[in-house]
Amino acid sequence: MTLQNFISMTLYLTFVVYAIFGTHSLTLNKDVRLNRVFAGLCFCFAIWSFVVAATNSSATATEALFWRRFSVLGWGVAYSLLLHVIIILRNAPWSEAHNKKLLLTVLYLPALANIIVFFIFSMPEKGHIQMILTDSGWISETNELWFSLLFLAYYLSFAYISMMLLVRWYKKINNTPDRSKAMLLMMSFGAAFFLGTVTDFVVASLPNGRIPSMAPVEVLIPVACIFFIIYKYGMVSSPQNKNESQPEGIILSTISRIRLFKYISIVMIVGSILNFYGRVNNNDTRITGVFLSFILVLMGTFVMCIPYLFKSIKS
């Protein structure tokens, strides 16, 4: 396997992990705000991971640029959602219902601006972005300084505020569980920042060291920690009674039906991975083929949610 294919597969598997994290949080309890926001966070990073994987495995610069345009739907919103998740975890007073409109405006207005500006800016006819093929995959370049500055302003400001909120939370609280949560999140952010520094600066400074963005893989560390925290402390537990009685005449129990849908979703997701690997390995990365892998994961996650969306199937 070439370095380019290895990076593409790593990013695609990261996409699958994000999709499973987001879907699983919704199946646990879709009515809890933290679950919904965390699922949105995972789905945004899933889109980003998939788009970077598809871009990196493209056969031509035109195809790579086509995929790259859609990355803003991931990174352009994800850091707003990450900050939103941290605010909910902290139970900050200004995140309560009466401040909801103001909070959503402050968090997501920059995300909306990102989508509008960067999606239009990345149009092929604009000619602002050039795709360059290296041994590790496709690298994007632009001569427009404001493009990089706007991205850095969004990323650094939201990442800095998130980190500062975690530090203040750690210093303010006295009970051990909350201090453990804050410490774990700070360590995960530090690990992601360290890996980002290594891949974006150290590796890039080496001869032929330029590689595609691995940010979705690096951010998986704090996202996985958030999932672990809210799962461990019961903040995403299902309100359903798992010891439901078996109605007479029903062949499959509730748990059996849920497992059946999960097994079907696993088959679809594994099929998507094999399809993507086969196409990348055989250099058959046409847009329709890669999009088929995305559709299979989308169908798999939907099938996983069916028992929780339709009570008649679960009960």
Q: Can you describe what's shown?
A:
With 315 residues, the protein is mainly alpha-helical. It has helices spanning 3-28, 33-56, 61-68, 72-90, 100-121, 145-172, 176-205, 215-232, 254-281, 287-309, 311-314, and strands spanning 129-134, 137-142. It has a two-stranded antiparallel ribbon. Strand 1 (129-134) and strand 2 form a beta hairpin. Helix 1 runs antiparallel to helix 2 (33-56) and helix 1 runs parallel beside helix 8 (215-232). The radius of gyration is 21 Å and the shape is globular. Residues 241-246 have low confidence and may be disordered.
By CATH, the architecture of the largest domain is named: Up-down Bundle
CATH topology of the largest domain: Rhopdopsin 7-helix transmembrane proteins
What is the CATH H-level superfamily of the largest domain? Rhodopsin 7-helix transmembrane proteins
| Largest beta-sheet characterization | 2 strands, antiparallel
Q: Return Rg in Å.
A: 21 Å
Query: Low-confidence segments, ≥5 residues, pLDDT <50?
Result: 241-246
Q: Give the distance, in angstroms, between the N- and C-terminal Cα atoms.
A: 47 Å
Estimated structural class: mainly alpha
**Oligomeric form of this entry?**
single chain
Amount of helix: over 70%
H-E string? HHHHHEEHHHHHH
Note the overall shape: globular
- Count of structural domains: 2
Strand content: under 5%
Average pLDDT confidence is 82
Q: Write down the CATH class of the largest domain.
A: Mainly Alpha
Q: How many helices?
A: 11
Beta strands, count: 2
